[in-house]
Amino acid sequence: MLCVLVLFIFIIPYSVQISPACSNNFISLGRKCYFFGNNEETWMNAHHECVEKNSSLATLINPHQHNLIKKYVNAKFSQERVERWIGGRFNEKQRIWVWGDSGKPIKYKSFGNEEINDNFKLQCLVMDQNQNNNWSIQNCLAKRRYICQTNFKNSKPRKGRRSKYDVPAPLTKITVPKNVNITKHKKNVNYACPPNMYLIGKKCYFFGDEQITWREAYYACQENNTNLAVIKNKKHDFKIREFLSDGFIEDSDRWLGGIYDYGRKKWKWPNGNTLTYTGFARIGLRNKNTRFSTIFMDRKLQYRWNIDNKMKKKGYICQTNAKEVVVVGNLTTQRKHVKKPDAVVVIKDTNVDNNTID
Fold first, then answer.
1. Are 198 and 319 contained in the same domain?
2. In this structure, are 80 and 119 located in the same domain?
3. Distance between CA atoms of residues 79 and 344, nearest Å
4. How many domains are there within the chain?
5. Signal peptide span per the entry (predicted)?
6. What is the CATH number of the domain that holds 303?
7. Cα separation, 286 vs 275, whole angstroms
């Protein structure tokens, strides 16, 4: 009898395994968790998408980390030829490439066929499948896919342990009744902004480049459910000055919300509140008539405050409160029939000041 040995070959597709190390459709590569966004966004909007997921745009600090992502992309997205935002951007003031989440200079670089020089204003980095997943330079306002990165939820992987591509159970988004108590920790709180706005501290900002009068700027902000910026303390002032000096947006004088009440001889915000903090440059108020004056951030004075007639035309800064995004590992409630999902995302809108203008 002739025995025929039939060899069955089973082709096992590239799979993703479950692991508690990462959350919300993130996968583990090495010692980090990554999310590969399929929607196309500008660099800044991609940044906010990552922030909403309790992460940041990917920061690739060494070739080992970069190669892990390359291998995953080549295996998972082999039929695609797309570009994905990572966290690198060009700091026009310092003339160097930096990581956007920290501002630290980029030391490890993996550019493809790019001509590298020191003039890349408003340029950001992508990982480019057309160049073997090396880096390419794109205008930050272009829309691309993106890669988010965060640390493991609980602990670091053991040394020598092989990393897996994990996807845990998805987060559940629920509306929490008023009589339900939620136990939350400050470290799990993040803040998110609407599209085209920048998150600075716990506020969202829009930097208008159009040159308009103070009153026109006021109404331009109101039309978008925001207000001309109100700066309440030195720390707040410093953060905005630092951001403006960083060279990521157009260099321009910009209106704030401050206006001079000539009758009461006081500076006030549009809602009528008197200024409790002022960031005027020492030379800003010298020999100037305060009548019909409003406050702007002066690019010639390192964005310290100055005053000018409100009919002059300048750029402007709109402001609103950021949305509070709270990720809670366990839901603690007094109502027994409320189920406890693996994780809960609670999004709460903070109140926006209703500013008025005379």
1. yes
2. yes
3. 35
4. 2
5. 1-17
6. 3.10.100.10
7. 19
Q: Does 112 share its domain with 238? A: no
Say if CB 193 and CB 204 are below 8 A apart.
yes
In DSSP terms, which residues pair with 31 in a beta bridge?
none
Residue 126, by phi and psi: left (phi above 0), alpha (psi -120 to 50) or beta?
Answer: beta
Tell me the residue range of the domain where 214 lies: 172-358
Spatial contact of 118 and 95, defined as CB atoms under 8 Å apart: yes
Which one, of 182, 197, 201, 192, lies nearest residue 53 by Cα?
A: 192
pTM of the model: 0.50
**Strand, coil or helix: what is 265?**
coil
pLDDT digits (tens, 9 = 90+) for 133-180: 999 999 888 899 999 999 887 644 344 333 333 323 333 333 444 444
Domain contains 193: yes
Residue 33 φ/ψ, nearest 5 degrees:
-110, 140
Residue 231: left if φ>0, alpha if ψ -120 to 50, beta else—which one?
A: beta
> CB-based contacts of 326: which residues, under 8 Å, 6+ apart?
182, 184, 188, 189, 190, 345, 346, 347, 348
